[in-house]
Amino acid sequence: MTMERRALVRPLDVREQDEHRTVAGYAAVFGAAADIAGQFREIVAPGAFSDTISGDVRALIDHDSGRVIGRTTAGTLRLAEDDVGLAVEIDLPDTQDGRDLATLIARGDISGMSFGFVVTHQEWDETGDMPTRTILAVDLREVSAVAFPAYDDTSIALRSLESARREKRRHNFRAAANRVLARKVSIDLRTRRLVSKA
Q: Residue limits of the Prohead serine protease domain (predicted)?
């Protein structure tokens, strides 16, 4: 499975108490349709993160694994699903990255969050003018404060669409093969009954 990333432009908040700084925002919003490179729409369903937010998730800057600013297992990153989406709170470290990030958010230079994930359950609807992917469950790997909140890695997402289409074709082929087999068995049984009555 391939990791994908999605970013969201939504205000980030920096809270200061004593010498501690906390960043708060949303890494994902439920029910909002996103256009993925004009190839398909994507919607994150409520509950998509419920099985994964208690795991070991990191907070990063710009998806850079060398710039960790929080972690759920350390208690410095808190994640929760609410009515809006995936709520994020990060206790910023007293490091150069932590201090810089607080300044950049306060200035408005960094204004978005993103999440890195692997889809574990999805549904596709190809009945409209553009396919729609509904993400029902993910394996959440990381959340990030990002400089360019845009839908990145669309080539990965497009491979996901093609993979889903292949799976649907395989499923349809298996279903058709099962129907043919059922008809053959039914015909065979009727033929046997006719032969035995004769």
A: 12-162
